[in-house]
Recover the amino acids of this structure.
């Protein structure tokens, strides 16, 4: 493996050089970045996936809905459509992607949109909904065609960006120095009881700019939710066997959560945003039927539930005891107040500046 990484270093540096030149063009003004008279908040990362962007978007929606007219704008990764679309109650992951569909199902009143061209998407949203005050841009830290008013950079506690390297050697999309564009840096998926000493060590390694805030968030797991109509078994009250079906970049935290519940885990892991087929549904059924334990069930993520909810799969899977575990981003009380106030203050300043 180490020898293979050595072979990949030249490709990583070539990739890094291209990113360096691209960022210089934007930083110097050779390539323009569009600004808008709205509060544009970007949530993103330096690495390729798995840092908790979706629960962070949902945290912000909960914080802001009812206070300000808001909308989300995503690329709609792996959707089978293109251009600007607004989600409705009949949208599917095939049309808009799994994450936007999750936003729409969880917050039906929320304006959820997709466009691979974020600049075009923002223009369309403002034209259609002139009352909008806040736009949440999902996974747009590297989308330099739009200049955000506030950038939130996420980094997974289990693999912080300062310990990572450029693709294809590591998982970084750009050089670590890209963190300088962030206003807020959040170490996500931290242990529940992170000590002050551990926080100081991370803070020193991040080495934030004077204007940057560094915070630490956690993942809160909710109660299992039936994907279909199966009655809820005593999942965590009795020892049992769980098939963990995942199509996300890092299923390890969820697996650890289930192991802590004294469950036996059979993992069926697929790539991030994987689009399930009948072949894989059949494999799941065969694996489930091969388990002798009377207390057996299937656990998936909420994103996977979005991708399994389509004709052809529902018909063959609907009788299985399948549940997703919802997750939320949380902060310790003091940091929650700080984070919330940073967001609210930014929006209020933008409103006052633009008189909207």
């Amino acid at each position: 493996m180490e020898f293979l990484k050595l072979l990949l270093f030249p490709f990583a540096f070539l990739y890094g050089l291209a990113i360096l030149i691209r960022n210089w063009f934007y930083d110097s003004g050779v390539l323009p970045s569009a600004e808008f008279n709205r509060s544009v908040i970007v949530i993103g990362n330096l690495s390729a996936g798995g840092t908790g962007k979706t629960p962070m978007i949902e945290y912000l929606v909960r914080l802001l809905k009812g206070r300000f007219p808001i909308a989300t704008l995503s690329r709609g990764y792996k959707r089978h459509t293109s251009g600007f679309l607004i989600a409705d109650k009949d949208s599917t992951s095939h049309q808009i992607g799994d994450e936007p569909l999750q936003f729409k199902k969880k917050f039906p009143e929320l304006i959820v949109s997709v466009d691979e061209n974020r600049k075009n998407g923002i223009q369309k949203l403002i034209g259609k909904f002139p009352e909008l005050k806040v736009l949440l841009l999902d996974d747009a830290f590297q989308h330099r065609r739009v200049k955000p008013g506030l950038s939130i950079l996420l980094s997974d506690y289990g693999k912080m960006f300062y310990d990572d390297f450029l693709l294809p050697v590591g998982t970084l999309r750009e050089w670590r120095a890209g963190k300088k564009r962030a206003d807020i840096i959040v170490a996500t998926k931290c242990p529940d009881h992170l000590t002050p000493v551990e926080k100081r060590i991370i803070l020193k390694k991040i080495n934030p700019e004077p204007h940057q805030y560094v915070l630490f968030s956690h993942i809160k797991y909710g109660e299992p939710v039936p994907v279909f109509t199966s009655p809820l078994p005593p999942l965590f009250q009795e020892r049992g066997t769980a098939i963990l079906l995942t199509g996300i970049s890092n299923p390890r935290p969820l697996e650890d959560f289930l192991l802590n519940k004294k469950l036996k885990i059979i993992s069926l892991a697929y790539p991030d945003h994987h689009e399930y087929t009948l072949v894989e549904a059949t494999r799941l059924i065969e694996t489930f039927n091969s388990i002798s334990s009377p207390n057996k069930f299937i656990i998936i993520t909420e994103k996977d539930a979005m991708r399994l909810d389509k004709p052809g799969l529902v018909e063959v899977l609907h009788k299985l005891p399948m549940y997703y575990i919802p997750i939320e981003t949380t902060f310790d009380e003091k940091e929650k107040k700080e984070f919330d106030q940073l967001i609210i203050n930014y929006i209020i300043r933008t409103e006052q500046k633009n008189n909207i």
About this structure: The mean pLDDT is 93. Residues 225-325 form a domain with the Rossmann fold fold (CATH 3.40.50.11460).
